[in-house]
Amino acid sequence: MLFSEFADGGDMWTGEGARERRSDITFSQPFRSAPVVQISVSLWDVDTSSALRAEVTAEDITLEGFSAVFRTWSDTRIARIRVAWTAIGEIAHEDDWDIS
Questions:
Q1: What CATH code is carried by the domain that includes residue 14?
Q2: Total number of domains constituting the chain
Q3: DSSP state letters, 72-93
Q4: What's the gap between Cα 1 and its chain centre?
Q5: What angle is formed at CA 46 by the lines to CA 61 and CA 19, rounded to 5 degrees?
Q6: Could you tell me the sign of the dihedral formed by the alpha carbons of 8, 2, 69, 13, in that order?
Q7: How many angstroms separate the CA atoms of 53 and 4, rounded?
Q8: Cβ contacts of residue 64 below 8 Å, gap of 6+?
Q9: Is the pLDDT of residue 12 over 70?
Q10: Which residue, among 96, 36, 89, has the nearest Cα to 61 in the 3D structure?
Q11: 18-53 burial by CB neighbour count: b if 16+ within 10 A, else e?
């Protein structure tokens, strides 16, 4: 769950204007080089009385993790968002040779 704000009256549910939430994600093991991260919304609970405006992105991608970022703006009201992600890249294996 990236955030849930309807129960406590958070800005995503009651506010207007630009709003953003970030969550730092740590990979279970580091990659050898920065991976490609695909992120998507897997659950959204929204008010449908206005236009739905949203973006979800993966930012600050490193060998160890990334930031999942959700943004909305104007009068869009978001109660909850859950995201799913996949990281694709090279990882070390115990059978790898270190010839340096």
A1: 2.60.40.2080
A2: 1
A3: E-TT--EEEEEEEEEEE--B--
A4: 9
A5: 50
A6: negative
A7: 17
A8: 26, 27, 30
A9: yes
A10: 36
A11: ebebeeebebeeebeeebebebeeeebebeeeeeee
- Flag whether 95 is in a domain: no
What is the span of the domain harbouring residue 39?
3-88
What is the rounded distance in angstroms from the CA atom of residue 40 to the CA atom of residue 89? 18
**Looking at this protein, which amino acid is placed at residue 62?**
T
Q: Model confidence at 96, in pLDDT bands (50, 70, 90)?
A: confident
Q: 11 — phi, psi (to 5°)?
A: -60, -35
Three-point CA angle 17, 20, 21, nearest 5°: 150
Q: How does residue 17 score in pLDDT terms, banded at 50, 70 and 90?
A: low
If we measure between CA atoms, which residue out of 53, 100, 51, 49 comes closest to residue 81? 53
Q: Identify the residue whose tokens are 């990236």.
A: 2
